[in-house]
């Protein structure tokens, strides 16, 4: 059971790429030379999924060995890259908590952010460590009753998140998040 | 410069290299760009080395492998025909380069065994552990590399005072590699093998230490398997003649703790995944299966222990009473668990079905294991209710319920 990344993104209604507000990644369990590609992929997949998660929706996308969970709350979206066995409900209670914390710390400042933030947000890194154990996330579950009321949409592949006519390969080609090396590894 | 020479030169310049990886040619630009820390040793196209990490361009693998293989075979032939001491270092150098590129090249591993066992120097044996670890950094499932470690440990046993410390480090290495490569049977098999060389303190320590990992990787049955190996070792050890009576109390504590921990994990998965995908369900079923299987193992040995105590005529009557009491509380606990696993919350149907099925088959399985305790069960377990419940929850297996319960 593993959380590899937690991210907070701002979704732009005009359909432009979402902006990264905060991110925390743990790629230590990958080989040294794979890490940069893994990071690029996480950012790319995060943007792709966030921009296709409508406001007040929760969805989970299976992508390779990951499950990417996303929760969009009025334009601000939290995402978690968990492995397959991390319980879905624990994942969403964590994403809920991350957004609460973000808004408590930064209020509505995110609405005016235009470029990716590189500022570290200590809370997110701590959360990444603490919630590796889903039992910790379950403690949150007990105080977040409203989670039960929203349905979570599940996608078996990232392709099923894409709009009709969109192809993952062409998104990969267009993306500035992926270096040539990562694009080659993909194919 | 010749590719192979260049490769071997880097390996010699930095003897602390602990990871080898293969990188795409275009990655060199990014690696060079990121110039934080020490300067890298790199020619910009084929090799890159910094912080004891060595990257080799994917384009160089094939020519490098061919060169290493040729050099190794030539060195080996010369060494065999001349038997010259000076040629040993050539064999060692070329087999190292070759194994980093092709981890399952058995002849190369064997040539190293040959040279090292002739020399009989502890430092050389330690060097083999380092090389094998380096090979495992890029090929974590290489059987040959794991088996080479076992050869080293067997060879230095009795000659090296730090054996226990080495075993501890082996165990840590397995855990580190298992974190990177899931369900790595060969790594865990190696860890299981280590157990027979451990001391009692070490086994108890390992049992304690691996619990956390197992709890976070419930789907990786390998770690549960390892824990079973440790527990069996403890059980066997406690039956040795020189074992103190206090030790057998400690063993039963270990057992109870493991049963409680397992129960906690099982309950963690009751009614969890409401929104289940089909692949998710499969994974989820595997987790449950691993947990219930682990419980069967624990219960079976626990009951056998009870049975031995109860039938042993030389046993104190006091001990018999105590055994009989703990047996009763054990049964009560298992029935209680069945109850909580088969009580259906309305909205959690899917999980409830899986859990109820597993818990019911578990209880029925228990009753078959030691039939003479069956009468005890019958009083407490209302069989008719169980049957009705199971036929309702899982009607597709009604044949099973009928045959088991009759």
From TrEMBL, chain A:
GO cellular component annotations of the record: Golgi apparatus; membrane
Membrane topology: Lipid-anchor
Subcellular location: Endomembrane system
InterPro entries according to UniProt: Longin-like_dom_sf (IPR011012), Longin_dom (IPR010908), Synaptobrevin-like (IPR001388), V_SNARE_CC (IPR042855)
Boundaries of every Longin domain copy: 7-123
Single Gene Ontology BP annotation: endoplasmic reticulum to Golgi vesicle-mediated transport
Molecular function (Gene Ontology), one example: SNAP receptor activity
Primary location class: membrane
Transmembrane regions listed in the UniProt entry: none
Domain V-SNARE coiled-coil homology stretches: 139-187
PANTHER family: SYNAPTOBREVIN HOMOLOG YKT6 (PTHR45806)
Family membership noted in the UniProt record: Belongs to the synaptobrevin family.
Descriptive protein name: VAMP-like protein YKT61
Automatic annotation (TrEMBL), chain B:
Superkingdom classification of source: Eukaryota
Lineage: Eukaryota, Viridiplantae, Streptophyta, Embryophyta, Tracheophyta
Family the UniProt entry places it in: Belongs to the protein prenyltransferase subunit alpha family.
Record-level GO cellular component terms: CAAX-protein geranylgeranyltransferase complex; protein farnesyltransferase complex
Species per Swiss-Prot/TrEMBL record: Castanea mollissima
InterPro entries: Prenyl_trans_a (IPR002088)
Keywords: Prenyltransferase, Repeat, Transferase
Family annotation (PANTHER family): PROTEIN FARNESYLTRANSFERASE ALPHA SUBUNIT/RAB GERANYLGERANYL TRANSFERASE ALPHA SUBUNIT, PROTEIN PRENYLYLTRANSFERASE SUPERFAMILY PROTEIN
Protein name as it appears in the record: Uncharacterized protein
GO molecular function, one term: protein farnesyltransferase activity
PROSITE patterns: PFTA
